[in-house]
């Protein structure tokens, strides 16, 4: 297949059928040699998933056929064509349309399909004045849903829970390309060696509010560097990087990690204790637990026992100093990195997740020592999985106390968090990061 755009169409069809965008992209990029082609592929691929609803809204205005009646290749062709016309200024309109129509020709032998794609794209290009978004004043939710391309129920949920102004910021942040960070892994080399290696490879990096985290600027292949191969770097969102820090693990402690895969936080815990803590790491999914094993090996983490288990039923007699409950969640804080999330979640799934999280917490709270601490975290933005989840737990146990995370985070990082809440909620984009929620719970004597 010669045409880059036909590859993009095929990749988008895979994601539509349920594949993960990140994995699909990684697999596709291996086949492409030229770095500029890789960049263009990535830009159009993610751009279309992020803006799907907005693009369809426009296509619908110019098509006499219902979108559900179109061949998938044609619909994807129209989306990528339109994305290039409206979002990429470096590709001349004629070239964008020509290449897209050629891609549709390559994928479908039926000549009508290419002619149809050509006709619609040319018409849109000639008559942009026909495109009108829903009226913002008359129907704010609908306007936001189309403009930022989110399902309307999700726009409503964000707006109900955060207010319309903050909701709009959340929606916009979810459409930005996420920043890439390296966590420096001190188990493999000194920081001076690590930084020297980045400099030698001409990688442009910046310090962040966490000592061991570095932001990579305009860098496309973070998994191919020397430091990565040597295990001195782990690619991790900076908000996720707070978890192990906030748990304040010490050498000699017994730590239970209830949902560990792919192992970002497990290996961070090992790093912070110089491999001197005893960590038990669970995950329900054996394939994903293998990723933890690979990461442990690459990063040189030690003293970690891996167990395939459902944390909602897991039994052991051990008492732990620390429990990390970085639980499965609806993932609404990760939309920038995994934009298909917004099309795959439902209100029902969010409720089901909240129930699962509750059962996992209830099943494991007895394993926490008196004076031990449990850190609850999710990468989502929904009250029922976050604040309400913790309120529910605290209402059921007299001996649990919510600790204030502000002084802890302000002490361990360069952040200066203020406010009344003892929780730590990081909104997407707030610190160039993904969205995260943290609550720290201490167990008191009976
Ligand atoms: C948010 S991810 C964990 C990320 C991980 N802590 C890290 O930092 O790399 C949630 C994980 O929970 C696992 N999971 C889902 N249901 C589970 C259950 N009932 N018991 C244990 N693990 C579960 C999933 O397989 C997934 O790997």
Automatic annotation (TrEMBL):
InterPro entries: MeTrfase_RsmB-F_NOP2_cat, MeTrfase_RsmB-F_NOP2_dom, NusB-like_sf, NusB_RsmB_TIM44, RCMT, rRNA_ssu_MeTfrase_B, RsmB-like_ferredoxin, SAM-dependent_MTases_sf. Keywords: Cytoplasm, Methyltransferase, RNA-binding, rRNA processing, S-adenosyl-L-methionine, Transferase. Signal peptide: none annotated. GO terms for molecular function: RNA binding; rRNA methyltransferase activity. The keyword rRNA processing applies. It is an enzyme of class 2 (transferase). Specifically methylates the cytosine at position 967 (m5C967) of 16S rRNA. This is 16S rRNA (cytosine(967)-C(5))-methyltransferase.
């Amino acid at each position: 297949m010669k045409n880059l755009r036909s590859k993009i169409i095929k990749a988008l069809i895979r994601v539509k059928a349920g594949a993960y965008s990140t994995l699909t992209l990684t697999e596709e990029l291996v086949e492409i040699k030229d770095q500029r082609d890789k960049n263009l592929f990535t830009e159009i691929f993610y751009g279309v998933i992020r803006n799907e609803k907005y693009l369809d809204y426009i296509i619908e205005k110019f098509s006499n056929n219902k979108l559900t009646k179109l061949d998938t290749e044609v619909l994807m062709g129209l989306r990528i064509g339109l994305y290039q016309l409206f979002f990429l200024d470096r590709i001349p309109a004629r070239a964008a349309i020509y290449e897209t129509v050629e891609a549709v020709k390559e994928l479908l032998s039926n000549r009508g399909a290419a002619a149809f794609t050509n006709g619609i794209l040319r018409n849109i290009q000639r008559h942009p004045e026909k495109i009108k978004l829903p009226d913002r004043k008359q129907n704010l939710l609908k306007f936001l849903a189309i403009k930022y391309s989110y399902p309307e129920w999700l726009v409503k949920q964000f707006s109900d829970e955060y207010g319309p102004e903050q909701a709009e910021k959340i929606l916009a942040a979810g459409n930005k390309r996420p920043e890439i960070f390296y966590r420096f892994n001190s188990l493999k080399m000194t920081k001076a060696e690590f930084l020297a290696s980045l400099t030698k490879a001409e990688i442009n990096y910046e310090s962040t509010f966490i000592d061991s985290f570095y932001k990579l600027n305009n860098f496309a292949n973070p998994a191919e560097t020397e430091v990565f191969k040597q295990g001195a770097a782990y690619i991790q969102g900076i908000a996720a990087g707070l978890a192990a820090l906030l748990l304040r693990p010490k050498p000699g402690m017994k730590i239970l990690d209830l949902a560990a895969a792919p192992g970002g936080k497990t290996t961070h815990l090992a790093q912070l204790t110089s491999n001197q803590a005893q960590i038990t790491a669970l995950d329900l999914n054996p394939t994903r637990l293998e990723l933890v094993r690979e990461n442990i090996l690459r990063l040189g983490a030690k003293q970690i026992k891996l167990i395939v288990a459902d944390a909602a039923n897991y039994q052991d007699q051990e008492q732990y100093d620390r429990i990390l409950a970085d639980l499965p969640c609806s993932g609404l804080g990760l939309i920038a990195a995994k934009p298909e999330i917004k099309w795959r979640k439902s209100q029902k799934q969010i409720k089901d997740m909240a129930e699962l999280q509750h059962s996992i917490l209830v099943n494991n709270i007895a394993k926490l020592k008196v004076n031990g601490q449990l850190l609850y975290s999710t990468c989502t933005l929904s009250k029922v999985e976050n604040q309400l989840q913790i309120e529910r737990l605290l209402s059921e146990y007299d001996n649990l106390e919510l600790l204030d995370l502000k002084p802890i985070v302000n002490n361990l990082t360069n952040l200066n968090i203020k406010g009344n809440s003892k929780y730590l909620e990081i909104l997407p984009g707030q610190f160039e990061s993904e969205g995260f929620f943290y609550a720290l719970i201490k167990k008191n004597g009976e």
